[in-house]
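REVIEWER CHECKLIST
Item 1: Sequence provided? yes
Item 2: Single chain? yes
Item 3: Sequence as submitted:
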Amino acid sequence: MDNQKSSGEEESSRERGLLHTWKGYSCSVTPEKVLLSRPVLQAALGNRHGVLLVEGGQVYSFGELSWKQTQAPSSVVTSEPVLEAGLSGQRVVAVAAGGFHSGALTEDGGVHMWGDNAHGQCGLSGLATVPNPTPVGVVDQLDPASALPSACASPQVVVTVVELACGEQHTMALSARHEVWAWGSGPQLGYPVGTIPAWRPQRVDRLAGRHVLQVACGAFHSMALVRCPVPTPEPRRPPPDKCGQCNQLLYTMTDKEDHVIISDSHHCPLGVEVGVGLGEVAGEIRRSSEGSPGGKGGSPGQQKVKSSPSEPLLSTHSHPRPLSSSFTAPGSSPAPAASPSQDQAAPSSLDSAEEACKELEEPEASEHTNNSVDQDPSTIQEDGSRTQGGAVLGTGAKNSPYPDEQAVKDYLKRLSDHTLSEQTAKSPQLAQHSQTDAIADVFTPDPDDETTTSIVMAMPAGGPVGSALNSLVASCASVVGERVALTCEALSLRKVMNYYYPVSSSSSSSSPASGPRAPPEGGREGPVGLARLEESLQGKKSSSLGDIREEEAEGLSRRLSLPGLLSQVSPRLLRRCSRSRVKAAPLTPPVVTEGDSLLPSLQTEVWSWGRGQEGQLGYGDFQTRSQPLCIKSLSSKEVVRIAAGAHHSLALTAQSQVFSWGSNSSGQLGHMESPSTIPRLAKLSEGIRVWDVAAGQQHTLLLADGDCFQPILYYSGQQIREGPGQTSKEGSGGYTQQPVLLPFCMNLGYVSSVFAGGQMCAAVADKNVMGFIASLHELAAAERRCYCKLTSVKIHVLQPLLKAENLCSSLGPISTGLLQTLIGRFHRVCQLTGQNSASLTSLLRRSRDIKGLVILENAQVFMDAYTEYATAVGNFLVIGGFQALAKPCQDLFGKGCEVVQRLVESADESAPLPDLLLSLLHLPIKHLQEYGRLLLKLATCYEVSSPDYQKLQDGCSKFESLVLHLKRKRKEADYTLHFWKSFPGKMTDSLRKASRRLVCESSNKALTLQNAGRFSVNWFILFNDALVHAQFSTHHVFPLTTLWVEPISEENTGLFGLKVITPEETFTLLASSSMEKAKWLRSIHQAVEQALSSVGSEVASLAAGGGPRADPPISRTASYKFYKDGRLKDATYEGRWVAGKPHGRGMVKWPDGRVYTGTFKNGLEDGFGEYIAPTKSPNKSDHYQGNWKEGKMHGFGTYRYATGEVYEGCFQDNMRHGHGMLRSGKLNSSSPSVFIGQWVNDRKCGYGVFDDITRGEKYMGTWQDDQRQGHGVIVTQFGLYYEGAFSNNKMMGTGVLLSEDDTTFEGEFSEDWTLSGKGILTMPNGDYIEGSFSGVWGTGLKISGCYYKPNLYDSDKDKSRTLKLGGLAVSSEEKWLAVFEECWRRLGSDTVGQGETSRAWDNIAIALTTNRQRHRDSPELLSRSHHKTLESLEIIPQHEGPVTMEKYDTIRHYLIKACDTPLHPLGRLLEMLVAVYRMTYVGVGANRRLLPQAVNEIKSYLSRIFQIVRFLFPDLPEEGGLIPETADAQQERDSISSDAQLDAPRRVVSSSALLLPVLLPRLYPPLFTLYALDKEKEEDVYWECVLRLNKQPDLALLAFLGVQQKFWPVSVTVQGEKQQVVISTKDACFATAVETLQQISTTFTPSDKLQVIQLTFEEITQEVLALLKEDFLWSMDDLFPVFLYVVLRARIRNLGSEVNLIEDLMDPCVQHGEHGIMFTTLKASYYQIQHEKIT
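Item 4: Structure as written out by the authors:
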């Protein structure tokens, strides 16, 4: 409204917030208008004063303000509002008024109080009155245990208050955390008070943890509106299995021969369990007895008669009776005592037991002082879930507070008909002097046990009267009886209840003096009492979940441990026993969605506490309760607002009903029914919907909707008549029987809230400025009216229908399920409407601004709910549910179904019942139209340019679009229903689905099948989910999600054709005309588009106003089940499609359990995918993950067999083909065998390595058809080495066999390790045998031949018998051909060394991109550096044109990066070569005789990889070629000396320089191990010599090695200090050169190692130059001894291996340069050390 009132704010402000006050309800009453400069936002009325809050946060007071400090001693009376100056500077947001005090609440949550403070109600100590508003601190004292250790006192937190309420002597505050705080005097505070008054605000702990929504204060009672706790699915804890005291098992199990006995008869030796000690029991009884008739007596003056333990506790019966328990109904007359001395009786069995305990404990006579009724009684009932009843015994006629006994009987007789109908065992009304007199408290059960029911024990009376011990015995007997009921869990509900509430047992008999006794209520009720008991249990079940959990916990923990004295029946047992009879009500409200969090909750409870002398607490009795309890009868009533008068209470529900209870002396409850101690509905005319309530001293004010949407006022209560010249007189006025309409209400304008207090009424009203206020009221009234209507439908029609017995048989299971869904969604819409109604009502009371409109802020929640509901109605309609529902309705509501007709408000009485039911369930959708209309009406009140107008306009268009959409859906459902009625019956059953709607059909021959037979019938029916092709008695269904349709050009054929493509069929439809063709094409396209879009997106699109697209996408995601014979028969595919074929990512599931998940291309598996195939073994399946091509496994993949084998390698046409590795065995780590090598058509073929771990053998050679065939090598873990020919998987043919000790056999073999034929056997010492051999090696050989022993004089020809290995092994160039072939294939070349370079680079780019996309889904697989490597590789280097040094460096860097990632073809190649190399030469393969093959294999890798590099960079010179120089480099070279020109190794292209840096570090460990094994003996000799020589000091070693003395260092630097070299100095000379040489062990490649040697020479030279201080040129004779010294001092462990590795793999182009000479020097040093003789 801010935009609206910008022009004339002052004028329009006078139209809003007008306050009118009046008293009474007569026709002559005229409301007075309170004139203020600003609109009134809120009013609060006390007994004789009022407080007003106006716009801007200012507060005014009026009336009798006796606390104001003025000169006049009398009360200050002001009719004009007076500004409370004490609140200036504060922005007040709420006010409250009590009897004689007031409160204000500021914007920051602070509280200010003023007025009468005699009872501490202003929260300030030491002041009787507080004249001006004074701040009151509401402070939360935190638990000191949780405070910081350094804190001296408990930390304090200021509580933010959001609501205030005031009573006569107390004040309550509601905090922002939904907790209740109270201060003042009386039981209405809700917590035990230590000192009176309690002027410091304290939390009401009983309500802690609950979500309190509102508080209200009566004169001496309090109320709270609490949101029902939302159930949290927490796991149920198992009941304790050990005693809390003695730690012994509560349950024991004894094994017998054929059964087990389970016992729970545990008795704690330490006494009762925690919290229920016997002393505490007695204390509880003592507290209870003080509040009972036995404790207080019937009147204030009465004292306890019994004064000593020997004095008997007398029974109320004059005749002896057997021991029994009897129930005294509330309506029965209390029996008078037999004599004045016998007027004290045991109120209950428990009372008597506890009283006796107390007497036994205290031998002295106990005198009790008088207990005033007005004091806070100790009779506290902990939870409203327990029965409120008590039994009244033994108060005689003389002590009765009534005028005469007959009045008591008449009053009780009048009440008896109502009490039991509401709840069982309520306490009877005892006494009533007048409305202000006290009423004696009635005994309540044990305060700590929620399940206790009051039991009256009839004590045995005989000659001698029983002692107090008898009473204890009787009590124990009673509880033993309860234990019997507890253990007999098989009892029915009736048996258990008959035990507690005996139907036939009569009430206490009266003495002859009292006349005939009252009829026993229990006997009169019979089964009705049981039914009412079930109702009470029903109420218990629907109580808050928190209460029930507390009951269960306390019920479990209360186990009295004395034998025979056991706990009461637990609520769990009562529930378990009563399941067969009592229908459980739902404990939880419907699930709260996210959108509902902004809507007010309708699941509420009302709690009350304080004085109850007028029944204002609502529990059916007059007891005072000092702790909050829940009024269970209101728990399911959806209370949204509460109000408290002086002695009565009101609750307003979401259905606009008013419940009232308490004092009804002036008819203020709005009804004349009794008793008035329980909530009852106020009597209002049909169609009157109340939406605000207020309660005064003896009157009630109601604000309601009438026939029009302008609010009307109702008044019930006392008539106030003002006499001339005098104040209002109470007695002279009459009172109302039920609420009456105030005739002047229509003149007030649009009333938004009402207030009452004392005798006064007030109403705040607005004038209808530009129709805005009227529109807002109309919107709220429409919502309230709708909610009441929907609730009536739910209660009177839907709920009875769901419970109907013949429902399922009439509808069938499918329709019944649809009906249940429909009713569930109806309930959801109904709930939303109720919440919105409560929100709108609250909005009218508060801001009256559109910013709080929930249907604007949460429009999507409403739209979703209505869309789902309309869909459910349509589904039920299409399936024929409304026709089938007619019969159950007639059976339930009679043939006319008047209840349905009344709710529909149908003018057409002849309308069929299905149509009436459909109209009834269309009511919510009809109401939806109101939203759009009223939002538009509100929008017209704003300027078009304002944001509020735009907001309302958007909301209006959303709801109007939804209405149109739902109308369209309704038409579709009607059209479909009509179609099914005319469709042939057999096909209807299979095609009719609830969600299926008809779009169009070709019964008019408008569409036919091309090339159909002459007599064939083809009927095409288009539904919203499928196209159906019907023929005679068969039909075929084509789902729309997998249907593509294309128009066929008419130019050539002249036919109006449509080509229809489905996954398994393609056919052509012919239309009768061009127009018909266009119509069908459009219809199919729209239906396909709608079928593809989900419901949510559909609603979103209609909200945005977008219609369906012209053509559905050719690429889409859908699911389809194949039906034709073929590879995919009966398989289900779900994933992406293009033009009728799976294309893109998807998943196929076959009926036999096979599953493929991955990418498709043109209907076939293509790309990366995962395949699972079950095997015959249970729970085992084959699992493939890898590449596919044209529906078959093709490319690299991993196949895990169900047997435990794993194959990782290449596939082709579903077979292992190419390079791959097969691990056999269940676990990879303990595989019995591993094969890595070449496969052809699923068989091992070509070169491969087979590691037989179980036999300890490794075969390296060629294969054919899974068998060893051709040349190969075998090494064993025992050191045997064989190389030679294999045939049929055996050693067969010529071969060489060596053992660990160098014994050698060369000759013929016939089996594995079996010699057969000619050969030569050579011994380690050189002796040999030549001849024929037979036998298995190692087990004894048969030899026929000659033995030779060579001697020194043999000719050289005979000596040359040295054996060269490797001649019969597979050559290095023939190894791993498949690995290199696969790399060439990845580069796009089918033949090694041939192909197009550009195509290779394209393939590299594709491979990198594809692999990056695959790894993007799981980024954890790639490190950050890996990502950077991939990014840098995406740039293709310049690969054409002459190679310069700069370009050569670029190539070198590119190769380093490419080989660093397996996603690049070169990196993949390198990774596979490393794998095969390690597989060959690790483990058993670490045999020294394999060293030459290992070295040659590396050289082979280099040459073959270099071939690929030259293919990628065609202009790179071949091995050993020179890189041409640029002109600049040429000039520079010419300018330098000729000596420096000789050494330019970087300009020579070599494979080792380019590739060894990336290859050798990965192969180094296995290679170096082979060198170390091969040179083991040499190394041992070398190392022994090194150790010996290093024992000498530096100078001695230099002298021994022949170093010239001029090269001996004179001084050395140690840790920065120069020291002289003396005879004992050790490890100091040439230290830097020694350290440099030691680094040779940390490098990998020969070039790096040579670099270290060069640096070592430079270090030696530097040190000598510093020593000689002149230029110096080395000669080898001078240099070698110095270098030998450095080598010795470096102590390199495997120097021989290092030397041999460098020699084998050194770049050939550096062998004759400077590096070559330096290496030769190192090699010479190594051999010199081995042969050094130490003299």
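Item 5: Key structural point noted by reviewer: The mean pLDDT is 77.
Item 6: Recommendation: ____
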